[in-house]
Design goal:
Chain lengths: ~425, ~525
């Protein structure tokens, strides 16, 4: 049946064959994101949504969700879920407070010396990894479903956060610590004078943006050349160049806008680094491949000699560390560790992953898709805020967006 | 008086986007006969039955369905079931935790005037239906505790409860052992005596020969011919010719064995059931394979053959495993699967969909999964090399897919099996254990698999083939062990192998004291 096919030609087929090798789902949400940005640019008063400051705010306000979504998409691809990341973020915020500020003298923490800012961050991430080991142990080695383990973790770590903070706040934090959530590269534009860039722009932001665009082209062209050398199918030429030109314009636009605000946020540097790192892990390392294999067919993965327990264990260690980093980001931004921090983050992260095209059954999903999903949510919330849309309507719309994005997936799969 | 046919499907054409699955197919089924439908995988058998049963609604196909002398326009399955057409799919549609009786009446419950289920009547009716199909079990027993053969009977009882007139069975004996198959075929004859017409889709030609009154052959979505099986004897070769469009004088390639020294020896191997750890499943098995040798392992399902293979392959089945494994005379450890693989063992499962393949992933990544480390440079997988290697297998194994980036779940059974074999050949094993390598795949693809097995042996590997099809084992193996109740009950060389002899070993029971 599959070989002896008599195919009828129609104009639709012609379009289809031209788009062969194009990932419509992934590119679809990319276009949806651009559409949203344009929509809010047109509707917000004074086009406030595309002002330099707003772009800067968008990045800083949504960084922590993107960090969580990276860990979450990996867990979801393997067929698990993690409901505890919000609570872990709160707990780790508290831990970071204890480590760097050591605030409440009467509480019995006097013995602990305050660490420098970097020690606080590393220590916090380490504790996050230990939290992940705890959950990974129950999921991977005892065999309790992740839904239950992390539901318990959601309560457990919220409780620990409250205990550690004794229902009060810790702050303020050292300036260097705050920079990771609130800081910018060369905010004072010290470089401008040296190379003669107008004061309106931040020179280093422009340079980084230019380097970024060049890096995109080099890596895309190299990957394509490699594929062609091995006679692999590649995206059509017009699509390849069109896509990368659009991507470059967007990166350049964002960079120029940011350079007119405070410069490149340190959060953005962290997030971009993590996106690149984890995209590589998921596509290019055996560990990443095993995650897809486990989610696609657990039995087959076991019989292929994959140490499934170890992979699952590391997945939770990983998301524990990323949740910790996200806890550090919000604590730094708020300049205070509070017991209620991170409330509902798990749901934002999970929504990002599913809007980004992951499958509920596991085995399917990408880091970039989840990032786009997270950005769609961020832009949507930001735009609605600027349009003074009430929180009631915002929640309704966010819910519908999630539902429709997944419905679109189900619908397009059925058509195949 | 109207014609004697219960069903006439006239000039049915069904088109999926880009594929003509059925092309002007006609089928006439006489009242009260057993009508077999044969064809290679992808010939359109299942599609035809889905058209008939309303899975593909009226309007989505071209042509007419005349059933009981009336043109029918079924919109869904309940329409066709209301007319007494019941289809039993290969993958049984039973709910594992519900009882036999509950399953029989699932969706069709016996209710009292208040709309509540009348349990007394349910069990009474269930018992009488079970008696009709010869199922001797407690109707309260959950389905999960009932063997596959008996589950099939529950499905038929369920069909009877719906007043079935035309029963359609899709590969009913594919998962059954010979005894259960024989019982099922007897039941079909018995139901025929009660006036129930059956359509049976099967790959097992000896069954068709034994039971069918008429055989319709499909090939590439077209009706090739309908053979009357009643009068003159129609040979299996005749049916195969129709299915593949060519004579297959020889279903097995000629064997020219070049057998060397012993490569693998298993001694005193025992394993217990993973849950019921008092139940001995593999009982003191000793066997060996030589370089270049194809060794068969014959046994009915549940005899312990798969259990033996999997317990040797990295202890992936069973508890309290004891025994020794030697490779080239030296003892090796096979405690984990990765250990077994690195010691040169490979095991291709009998159930490729559940245990062998990631169906939502492409051909390339399935082939590389067990040997991914060999593609790694500086910690990263070289996916260009991976693509190249997969493409080489696609060519050498004749995997029919648009490319190695095609999703495995969309390939036919035979091509999926070739992907599984490629995956295990790529770990470069010294000994391959192939569990039911030709199950559920068509005659042409089977021959290709046999050639691949021979090629592996000629490269100096040891090959162990597990199969429940005796002609297949006799056709391709140099030596055959028979296994029964977890024990090796006989060892037969190729020239002495006769089905009757092997069957007597395979059914040998433990001597009772």
């Amino acid at each position: 049946m599959s070989t002896a096919t008599t195919q009828k030609k129609s104009p639709f087929d012609a379009i289809k064959s031209r788009l062969q090798g194009v990932d419509l789902r992934q590119n679809g949400i990319f276009l949806a994101l651009i559409g949203l940005v344009i929509f809010f640019a047109a509707t917000t008063p004074n086009a406030a949504s595309i002002s330099p400051t707003n772009f800067s705010n968008l990045v800083v306000q949504n960084g922590y969700i993107l960090v969580l979504a990276i860990g979450m998409v990996m867990v979801i691809i393997a067929g698990h879920i993690d409901l505890s990341v919000g609570s872990i973020a709160a707990f780790i915020g508290a831990v970071a407070g204890i480590l760097t500020v050591r605030p409440i003298e009467q509480d019995g923490w006097e013995w602990l010396p305050a660490l420098p800012w970097w020690g606080g961050i590393l220590g916090a991430i380490l504790v996050g990894a230990i939290v992940g080991m705890w959950q990974g142990f129950w999921v991977a080695y005892v065999g309790i479903p992740a839904f239950i383990v992390t539901l318990a973790g959601m309560l457990l770590f919220r409780g620990l956060a409250l205990m550690t903070l004794q229902s009060s706040n810790i702050g303020p934090f050292p300036d260097e610590f705050r920079a990771i959530g609130n800081g910018f590269i060369d905010k004072e534009k010290t470089l401008n004078g040296l190379i003669g860039i107008p004061e309106q722009f931040n020179a280093i932001a422009l340079i980084i943006t230019a380097l970024g665009v060049v890096a995109i082209w080099i890596s895309q062209l190299r990957t394509r050349a490699g594929k062609i050398r091995y006679e692999q199918p590649v995206e059509p030429v017009f699509w390849f160049y069109g896509k990368n030109v659009i991507l470059s314009i967007m990166v350049a636009y964002l960079g120029i806008q940011l350079s007119q605000a405070n410069g490149i946020p340190i959060t953005l540097v962290v997030v971009v680094f993590l996106i690149l790192l984890y995209t590589m892990i998921m596509n290019k390392t055996p560990f990443g491949r095993y995650i897809y294999a486990i989610g696609g067919n657990l039995n087959a993965a076991v019989l292929s000699g994959i140490n499934v327990r170890l992979v699952n264990f590391f997945l939770f260690v990983n998301i524990g560390a990323l949740a910790a980093l996200s806890g550090v980001l919000i604590t730094a931004r708020m300049n205070s560790a509070v017991p209620k921090a991170g409330d509902g983050f798990e749901l934002d992260a999970i929504s990002s992953v599913f809007i980004g095209g992951a499958a509920v059954q596991g085995g399917v999903g990408t880091v970039t898709g989840s990032m786009l999903g997270g950005m769609i949510q961020g832009v949507l919330a930001n735009g609605m805020n600027l349009n003074s849309v009430g929180i009631d309507v915002q929640m309704t719309i966010k819910g519908l967006v999630l539902l429709l994005a997944v419905a679109f997936d189900v619908w397009s799969k059925r058509r195949k | 008086m109207a014609s004697n046919s219960i069903l006439e499907m006239k000039n049915i054409t069904k088109i999926f986007p880009g594929v003509k699955a059925l092309d002007d197919v006609s089928l006439t089924v006489e009242r009260g006969e057993i009508h077999a439908i044969c064809g290679e995988n992808g010939a359109g058998k299942s599609t035809l039955m889905k058209v008939l049963s309303g899975v593909y609604a009226f309007g989505t196909y071209i042509g007419d369905i005349v059933y009981e002398n009336e043109v029918r326009k079924f919109a869904n399955i309940s329409d066709s079931e209301a007319q007494g057409i019941v289809i039993i799919h290969q993958e049984l549609a039973l709910s594992p935790h519900l009882s036999i009786a509950e399953n029989i009446f699932l969706g069709n419950e016996i209710k009292n005037v208040f709309g509540l289920i009348n349990w007394n009547k349910t069990y009474q009716e269930a018992s009488s239906l079970m008696a009709r199909v010869g199922l001797k079990e407690d109707p309260n027993l959950p389905i999960k505790d009932v063997g596959v053969g008996k589950q099939q009977l529950v499905e038929i009882a369920k069909a009877l409860s719906k007043r079935v007139k035309l029963l359609i069975l899709d590969e009913p004996t594919a998962a059954l052992n010979d005894e259960d198959s024989a019982h099922l075929l007897d039941l079909l004859r018995h139901l025929k005596g009660q006036g129930i017409t059956s359509i049976i889709i099967s790959h097992k030609l000896n069954e068709i020969e034994a039971i069918a009154d008429t055989t319709t052959i499909l090939r590439d979505g077209k009706t090739i011919e309908s053979l009357n099986m009643k009068g003159s004897k129609v040979s299996q070769e005749r049916i195969i010719k129709g299915m593949v469009g060519r004579e297959m004088d020889n279903r097995y390639p000629a064997r020219n064995a070049d057998i060397g020294d012993e490569i693998l020896r298993v001694e005193n191997w025992s394993a217990y059931h993973p849950i019921d750890s008092t139940r001995l499943v593999v009982d003191d098995v000793s066997m060996n394979v030589r370089k270049g040798e194809i060794v068969g392992l014959a046994g009915i399902m549940g005899a312990g053959r798969t259990e033996f293979a999997r317990s040797v392959f990295g202890h992936s089945y069973g508890t309290n495993i004891t025994g020794k494994v030697y490779k080239n005379g030296k003892e090796i450890s096979v405690k984990t699967i990765s250990e077994a693989i690195s010691n040169g063992l490979a095991y291709a499962t009998e159930d490729r969909k559940r245990f062998g393949l990631n169906l939502i992933e492409d051909v390339k990544r399935n082939i590389s999964l067990a040997s991914l480390k060999s593609f790694v440079r500086f910690g990263l997988v070289n996916d260009n090399e991976e693509y190249k290697r997969a493409s080489e297998y696609r060519a050498s194994m004749n995997i029919k897919s648009p490319s190695v980036l095609s999703v495995v779940g969309q390939l036919s059974g035979g091509n999926q099996q070739k992907v599984v074999l490629s995956k295990w050949i790529n770990v470069n094993p010294d000994v391959l254990i192939l569990d039911e390598p030709t199950r559920g795949i068509d005659v042409g693809a089977k021959y290709e698999i046999y050639l691949i097995i021979q090629r592996l042996a000629s490269e100096g590997k040891g090959v162990i083939v597990i199969s429940s099809e005796l002609p297949e084992l006799i056709g391709i193996c140099d030596r055959i062990y028979a296994i029964s109740e977890g024990r090796i009950t006989g060892e037969v060389l190729r020239q002495d192998a006769k089905p009757e002899l092997l069957m007597s070993y395979m059914t040998m029971e433990k001597s009772k004291k």
